Amino acid sequence: MYHLLVWIKNSRVWMLVRGVIFILIFFVFAAIFEMNTILWLGEKLVSVAVTVLIVVFQPELRRALEQIGRRKIKSIFTWNLLKTGAKKFDDTTIVSMVTACYEMGAVKTGALIVVENDMQLTEFERTGISIDALVTRQLLINIFEKNTPLHDGAVIVRGDRVVSATCYLPLSDNMGLSKDLGTRHRAAVGISEVSDSLTIVVSEETGTVSYAREGRIVRDVKEDELIAELKRIQNPDEEDVIEPEKREG
Protein backbone atom coordinates (compact mmCIF):
# COMPACT_ATOMS: atom_id res chain seq x y z
CA MET A 1 0.00 0.00 0.00
CA TYR A 2 2.87 2.37 0.80
CA HIS A 3 4.54 1.79 -2.57
CA LEU A 4 1.18 2.22 -4.30
CA LEU A 5 0.68 5.61 -2.63
CA VAL A 6 4.25 6.68 -3.49
CA TRP A 7 3.69 5.64 -7.11
CA ILE A 8 0.48 7.69 -7.25
CA LYS A 9 2.22 10.74 -5.78
CA ASN A 10 5.24 10.56 -8.10
CA SER A 11 3.26 10.16 -11.30
CA ARG A 12 0.67 12.11 -13.24
CA VAL A 13 -1.99 9.97 -11.52
CA TRP A 14 -1.72 12.25 -8.48
CA MET A 15 -3.05 15.23 -10.44
CA LEU A 16 -6.01 13.18 -11.60
CA VAL A 17 -6.63 11.81 -8.10
CA ARG A 18 -6.79 15.36 -6.73
CA GLY A 19 -9.48 16.14 -9.30
CA VAL A 20 -11.48 13.08 -8.23
CA ILE A 21 -11.15 14.09 -4.56
CA PHE A 22 -12.45 17.57 -5.40
CA ILE A 23 -15.51 16.08 -7.13
CA LEU A 24 -16.21 13.82 -4.13
CA ILE A 25 -16.03 16.79 -1.75
CA PHE A 26 -18.44 18.64 -4.04
CA PHE A 27 -20.96 15.78 -3.79
CA VAL A 28 -20.59 15.71 0.00
CA PHE A 29 -21.60 19.37 0.12
CA ALA A 30 -24.47 18.59 -2.25
CA ALA A 31 -25.70 15.95 0.18
CA ILE A 32 -25.43 18.32 3.14
CA PHE A 33 -27.45 21.04 1.36
CA GLU A 34 -29.87 18.49 -0.18
CA MET A 35 -29.14 19.32 -3.81
CA ASN A 36 -31.21 16.43 -5.13
CA THR A 37 -30.56 16.96 -8.84
CA ILE A 38 -26.79 16.94 -8.35
CA LEU A 39 -27.06 13.85 -6.14
CA TRP A 40 -29.12 12.11 -8.84
CA LEU A 41 -26.39 12.89 -11.37
CA GLY A 42 -23.82 11.54 -8.93
CA GLU A 43 -25.69 8.25 -8.60
CA LYS A 44 -25.73 7.85 -12.39
CA LEU A 45 -21.99 8.57 -12.56
CA VAL A 46 -21.16 5.83 -10.04
CA SER A 47 -22.30 3.12 -12.46
CA VAL A 48 -19.76 4.21 -15.07
CA ALA A 49 -17.04 5.42 -12.70
CA VAL A 50 -14.96 2.23 -12.98
CA THR A 51 -14.92 2.42 -16.77
CA VAL A 52 -14.03 6.11 -16.64
CA LEU A 53 -11.13 5.47 -14.27
CA ILE A 54 -9.77 2.69 -16.49
CA VAL A 55 -9.88 4.99 -19.52
CA VAL A 56 -8.31 7.96 -17.69
CA PHE A 57 -5.56 5.94 -16.00
CA GLN A 58 -4.93 3.64 -18.98
CA PRO A 59 -1.26 4.68 -19.63
CA GLU A 60 -0.26 4.28 -15.97
CA LEU A 61 -2.13 0.96 -15.57
CA ARG A 62 -0.54 -0.39 -18.76
CA ARG A 63 2.98 0.46 -17.55
CA ALA A 64 2.32 -1.15 -14.16
CA LEU A 65 0.98 -4.36 -15.75
CA GLU A 66 3.92 -4.49 -18.16
CA GLN A 67 6.38 -4.28 -15.29
CA ILE A 68 4.50 -7.01 -13.38
CA GLY A 69 4.60 -9.22 -16.48
CA ARG A 70 8.36 -8.83 -16.81
CA ARG A 71 8.99 -10.01 -13.26
CA LYS A 72 8.98 -13.49 -11.80
CA ILE A 73 6.01 -14.47 -9.65
CA LYS A 74 8.26 -14.88 -6.60
CA SER A 75 9.41 -11.27 -6.72
CA ILE A 76 5.98 -9.64 -7.00
CA PHE A 77 5.41 -9.50 -3.25
CA THR A 78 8.76 -7.82 -2.65
CA TRP A 79 8.46 -5.53 -5.65
CA ASN A 80 8.85 -1.80 -5.36
CA LEU A 81 5.86 -1.01 -7.64
CA LEU A 82 7.67 1.71 -9.52
CA LYS A 83 10.90 3.52 -8.80
CA THR A 84 10.09 6.07 -6.17
CA GLY A 85 11.60 9.15 -7.71
CA ALA A 86 14.86 10.02 -9.36
CA LYS A 87 18.06 10.20 -7.41
CA LYS A 88 19.71 13.58 -7.09
CA PHE A 89 22.70 14.28 -9.28
CA ASP A 90 26.12 15.49 -8.13
CA ASP A 91 27.99 18.70 -8.87
CA THR A 92 29.97 17.14 -11.72
CA THR A 93 26.73 16.47 -13.58
CA ILE A 94 25.64 20.09 -13.17
CA VAL A 95 28.98 21.38 -14.44
CA SER A 96 28.91 19.00 -17.41
CA MET A 97 25.41 20.06 -18.47
CA VAL A 98 26.04 23.79 -18.05
CA THR A 99 29.41 23.72 -19.77
CA ALA A 100 28.04 21.69 -22.68
CA CYS A 101 25.05 24.02 -23.12
CA TYR A 102 27.13 27.18 -23.36
CA GLU A 103 29.71 25.58 -25.63
CA MET A 104 26.89 24.47 -27.94
CA GLY A 105 25.39 27.96 -27.73
CA ALA A 106 28.70 29.50 -28.80
CA VAL A 107 28.53 27.59 -32.10
CA LYS A 108 24.72 27.78 -32.37
CA THR A 109 24.03 24.10 -31.95
CA GLY A 110 20.44 23.56 -30.82
CA ALA A 111 19.82 21.38 -27.76
CA LEU A 112 16.95 20.28 -25.54
CA ILE A 113 17.82 18.66 -22.19
CA VAL A 114 15.11 17.54 -19.76
CA VAL A 115 16.36 17.14 -16.17
CA GLU A 116 14.00 14.81 -14.34
CA ASN A 117 12.97 15.80 -10.82
CA ASP A 118 10.61 13.81 -8.56
CA MET A 119 8.07 12.86 -11.24
CA GLN A 120 9.35 10.14 -13.53
CA LEU A 121 9.20 10.76 -17.29
CA THR A 122 9.00 7.13 -18.37
CA GLU A 123 6.27 7.69 -20.95
CA PHE A 124 8.39 10.33 -22.71
CA GLU A 125 11.58 8.33 -22.26
CA ARG A 126 10.03 5.49 -24.26
CA THR A 127 9.50 7.74 -27.28
CA GLY A 128 13.26 7.99 -27.77
CA ILE A 129 16.29 5.75 -28.00
CA SER A 130 17.72 4.28 -24.81
CA ILE A 131 21.19 5.55 -23.89
CA ASP A 132 21.88 4.88 -20.19
CA ALA A 133 25.25 6.62 -20.03
CA LEU A 134 26.95 8.87 -17.50
CA VAL A 135 26.33 12.57 -18.14
CA THR A 136 29.44 14.20 -19.57
CA ARG A 137 30.06 17.37 -21.51
CA GLN A 138 31.45 15.43 -24.45
CA LEU A 139 28.45 13.07 -24.63
CA LEU A 140 25.89 15.90 -24.69
CA ILE A 141 27.79 17.84 -27.35
CA ASN A 142 28.13 14.72 -29.47
CA ILE A 143 24.43 13.86 -29.19
CA PHE A 144 23.29 17.29 -30.39
CA GLU A 145 25.91 17.63 -33.13
CA LYS A 146 24.11 18.51 -36.37
CA ASN A 147 23.42 15.74 -38.88
CA THR A 148 23.97 12.96 -36.33
CA PRO A 149 21.31 10.26 -35.73
CA LEU A 150 20.47 11.44 -32.17
CA HIS A 151 20.51 15.22 -32.53
CA ASP A 152 16.78 15.66 -33.23
CA GLY A 153 14.50 15.63 -30.18
CA ALA A 154 15.14 15.85 -26.44
CA VAL A 155 17.56 14.18 -24.07
CA ILE A 156 16.22 13.01 -20.70
CA VAL A 157 18.61 13.09 -17.73
CA ARG A 158 17.78 11.04 -14.64
CA GLY A 159 20.17 11.46 -11.75
CA ASP A 160 23.70 11.35 -13.14
CA ARG A 161 22.79 9.51 -16.34
CA VAL A 162 21.42 10.26 -19.76
CA VAL A 163 18.65 7.67 -20.06
CA SER A 164 17.22 8.46 -23.48
CA ALA A 165 17.71 10.66 -26.55
CA THR A 166 15.57 11.80 -29.51
CA CYS A 167 12.55 11.91 -27.21
CA TYR A 168 9.29 13.54 -28.28
CA LEU A 169 7.82 16.10 -25.89
CA PRO A 170 4.33 17.64 -25.79
CA LEU A 171 4.11 21.13 -27.26
CA SER A 172 2.63 23.87 -25.13
CA ASP A 173 -0.58 25.45 -26.40
CA ASN A 174 -0.12 28.49 -24.17
CA MET A 175 -1.21 31.46 -26.29
CA GLY A 176 0.72 33.81 -24.01
CA LEU A 177 4.12 32.56 -25.21
CA SER A 178 6.12 34.83 -27.45
CA LYS A 179 5.49 34.24 -31.16
CA ASP A 180 9.20 34.13 -31.89
CA LEU A 181 9.63 30.94 -29.85
CA GLY A 182 10.19 27.88 -32.01
CA THR A 183 9.19 24.25 -31.59
CA ARG A 184 12.14 23.46 -29.33
CA HIS A 185 11.16 26.15 -26.80
CA ARG A 186 7.46 25.26 -26.94
CA ALA A 187 8.35 21.62 -26.26
CA ALA A 188 10.39 22.74 -23.23
CA VAL A 189 7.41 24.66 -21.86
CA GLY A 190 5.07 21.78 -22.73
CA ILE A 191 6.97 19.18 -20.69
CA SER A 192 7.23 21.64 -17.78
CA GLU A 193 3.43 21.98 -17.79
CA VAL A 194 2.85 18.25 -17.25
CA SER A 195 5.79 17.46 -14.95
CA ASP A 196 8.08 19.00 -12.32
CA SER A 197 11.15 18.71 -14.55
CA LEU A 198 13.60 21.43 -15.54
CA THR A 199 14.26 21.71 -19.27
CA ILE A 200 17.31 23.48 -20.70
CA VAL A 201 17.06 24.87 -24.23
CA VAL A 202 19.89 26.05 -26.47
CA SER A 203 18.64 28.12 -29.38
CA GLU A 204 19.94 27.12 -32.80
CA GLU A 205 19.18 30.59 -34.19
CA THR A 206 20.65 32.84 -31.50
CA GLY A 207 22.83 30.52 -29.39
CA THR A 208 21.16 31.73 -26.17
CA VAL A 209 20.45 29.36 -23.30
CA SER A 210 17.03 29.29 -21.61
CA TYR A 211 15.23 27.04 -19.17
CA ALA A 212 11.58 26.09 -18.62
CA ARG A 213 9.99 25.05 -15.35
CA GLU A 214 6.44 24.98 -13.98
CA GLY A 215 4.95 26.14 -17.26
CA ARG A 216 7.12 29.22 -17.70
CA ILE A 217 10.29 29.89 -19.65
CA VAL A 218 13.21 32.08 -18.60
CA ARG A 219 15.18 33.17 -21.65
CA ASP A 220 18.81 34.08 -22.21
CA VAL A 221 20.11 33.12 -18.77
CA LYS A 222 23.71 33.35 -17.59
CA GLU A 223 25.73 30.38 -16.41
CA ASP A 224 25.39 31.20 -12.71
CA GLU A 225 21.59 31.51 -13.06
CA LEU A 226 21.33 28.11 -14.71
CA ILE A 227 23.59 26.53 -12.10
CA ALA A 228 21.46 28.00 -9.31
CA GLU A 229 18.30 26.58 -10.87
CA LEU A 230 19.83 23.12 -11.20
CA LYS A 231 20.99 23.33 -7.59
CA ARG A 232 17.40 23.93 -6.49
CA ILE A 233 16.48 20.54 -7.93
CA GLN A 234 19.60 18.86 -6.61
CA ASN A 235 19.25 20.22 -3.06
CA PRO A 236 15.86 21.92 -2.54
CA ASP A 237 16.76 22.94 1.01
CA GLU A 238 20.12 24.45 0.15
CA GLU A 239 20.98 27.68 -1.64
CA ASP A 240 24.68 27.10 -2.22
CA VAL A 241 25.84 27.62 -5.78
CA ILE A 242 28.84 25.88 -7.27
CA GLU A 243 31.24 27.54 -9.64
CA PRO A 244 31.62 26.07 -13.15
CA GLU A 245 34.97 24.52 -13.90
CA LYS A 246 37.21 26.15 -16.46
CA ARG A 247 36.52 24.99 -19.97
CA GLU A 248 39.11 23.00 -21.80
CA GLY A 249 41.27 24.93 -24.20
Automatic annotation (TrEMBL):
GO terms for cellular component: plasma membrane. Signal peptide: none annotated. It is found in: Cell membrane. It comes from the Bacteria. Residues 58-223 form the DAC domain. It catalyses: 2 ATP = 3',3'-c-di-AMP + 2 diphosphate. Gene3D superfamilies: DNA integrity scanning protein, DisA, N-terminal domain (3.40.1700.10). It is an enzyme of class 2 (transferase). The keyword Transcription regulation does not apply. The chain crosses the membrane at residues 12-32. One of its GO terms (biological process) is cAMP biosynthetic process. It holds the Pfam family DAC. PANTHER family: DIADENYLATE CYCLASE (PTHR34185). NCBIfam families: diadenylate cyclase CdaA. Belongs to the adenylate cyclase family. DacA/CdaA subfamily. This is Diadenylate cyclase. The gene is dacA.
